From TrEMBL:
Provenance organism: Hermanssonia centrifuga
Pfam name, any one: RPN6_C_helix
Cellular component GO terms, alphabetical: proteasome complex
Alphabetical list of SUPFAM superfamilies matching this protein: Winged helix' DNA-binding domain
Polar residues bias (residue ranges): 1-12
UniProt keyword list: Proteasome
Similarity comment: family membership: Belongs to the proteasome subunit S9 family.
Domain of life: Eukaryota
Protein name in the entry: PCI domain-containing protein
Length: 321
């Protein structure tokens, strides 16, 4: 849809919002369903996104005026997909500020914003959104506050601030949740991560499987954290050696040999350490990082300069002769 058509559609929807809200709703949804064109310029796509932003806000206002709680909730869900194409969490704030949202829906917006920031590994900003959500839901005695608290604890772990977990659970709002199994599961993860103990980490995942695996956000981030912890443990084991048996490394980390071989291969390819896997002999050869030797390049450069001097002297000799 061209820019003028989109503007006309927005104007038409705004005019018929009072007399024919169903028609206005349909127009706003049609605008929101448009996709940006990969072949279009950045400015053209920005115009499309701006129209969608206006449509999203106006649709929320339409539902608000109709006292349509389900419609407002639908706008919140639409805003999450829309945030992936724009400034993500900023759009959530814009939507919330442009239309009135009840505290519960505002908390859900903050929660989605925090999840998006966590996906971008911006755990500091994510924590602030989760904290706002937790405060709001706790004040309403909403059981979903527990989920926000778990996300806060997850952010502390992902920021390598596992030691802050205990102090966080001592604040007034969190004390009533501190002894719950869901919170204990995150406490166990924090302890294992702080001690860099892979076995304890795996034990926590087994002991609290329901608490840690039922939430896709927590499951995804813990999977990445486990991978990092495995790398750290493998490095700690292989670094003292120049040659080490893969079977021995696998025993030390409590993993299968094939899985360890695959991970070591990946680490070598990622240049986390320098080495070669000899699968026939079942050993790993580790060597120090080689430093570039510039002697050859320096010698070539010197010879080039000598050549220039010789050519210059020869030219002068020809002139004298």
């Amino acid at each position: 849809m061209s820019t003028p058509s989109a503007e006309e559609s927005l104007n038409e929807a705004q005019k018929c919002a009072g007399s024919d809200p169903k028609r206005a709703e349909k127009i706003y949804n049609e605008i929101l369903e448009q996709n940006t064109d990969k072949n279009a310029t950045q400015a053209e796509n920005a115009v499309v996104l701006r129209h969608q932003e206006i449509a999203l806000v106006k649709l929320g206002e339409l539902y608000r005026d109709q006292k349509n709680a389900e419609g407002v909730a639908e706008v919140i869900n639409k805003s999450r997909a829309f945030m992936s194409s724009t400034a993500k969490a900023k759009t959530a704030k814009l939507t919330a500020n442009s239309i009135y949202c009840p505290p519960h829906l505002q908390a859900q917006l903050d929660l989605q914003s925090g999840i998006l920031h966590a996906e971008d590994k911006d755990y500091t900003t994510a924590y602030s959104y989760f904290f706002e959500t937790f405060e709001s839901l706790s004040s309403q005695d909403d059981p979903n506050a527990l989920g926000a608290l778990k996300y806060m604890l997850l952010c502390k772990v992902m920021l390598n601030l596992s030691e802050d977990v205990t102090s966080l659970l001592s604040i007034k709002l969190a004390t009533k949740y501190a002894q719950l199994r869901d919170v204990e599961s995150m406490r166990a993860i924090a302890r294992a991560h702080q001690n860099r103990n892979l076995a304890d980490f795996e034990k926590a995942l087994r002991d609290y499987q329901n608490e840690l695996s039922s939430d896709i956000t927590i499951r995804t981030h813990l999977s990445a954290l486990y991978d990092t912890l495995l790398e750290q443990n493998l490095l700690r084991i292989v670094e003292p050696y120049s040659v080490v048996e893969v079977e021995y490394v696998a025993q030390q980390v409590g993993q299968g040999r094939q899985a360890v071989e695959l991970k070591l291969s990946q680490m070598i390819l990622d240049k986390i350490f320098h080495g070669v896997l000899d699968q026939q002999r079942g050993i790993l050869l580790i060597f120090d990082e080689t430093t570039a030797d510039n002697t050859y390049g320096t010698a070539i450069e010197t010879l080039e300069q000598v050549g220039k001097v010789v050519d210059s002297l020869y030219a002068k000799t020809v002139k004298i002769a």
